[in-house]
Design a protein that fits this description.
Helix content: over 70%
Low-confidence stretches: none
Largest sheet: none
Distance between the termini: 13 Å
Mean pLDDT: 90
Strand content: under 5%
Number of strands: 0
Shape: elongated
Number of domains: 1
């Protein structure tokens, strides 16, 4: 479960890097906001999966 959770964290890391890069540029394309939100939700699911795996005996 932990390994799958780590795999789910990867889209969130990429989304954060991409969002930071977009805020540094002069043109922020708002069409990518739903994709970024979806990637962050997947990363949140990964965090919750890792958390649930750590609580199991």
């Amino acid at each position: 479960m932990v390994m799958f959770g780590i795999v789910l964290l990867l889209p969130g890391i990429c989304a954060l890097i991409f969002a930071f890069d977009q805020t540094q540029s002069s043109h922020f394309d708002t069409r990518f906001i739903p994709v970024l939100v979806l990637a962050l939700l997947v990363a949140f699911a990964g965090v919750m999966l890792i958390r649930a795996a750590r609580k199991r005996p």
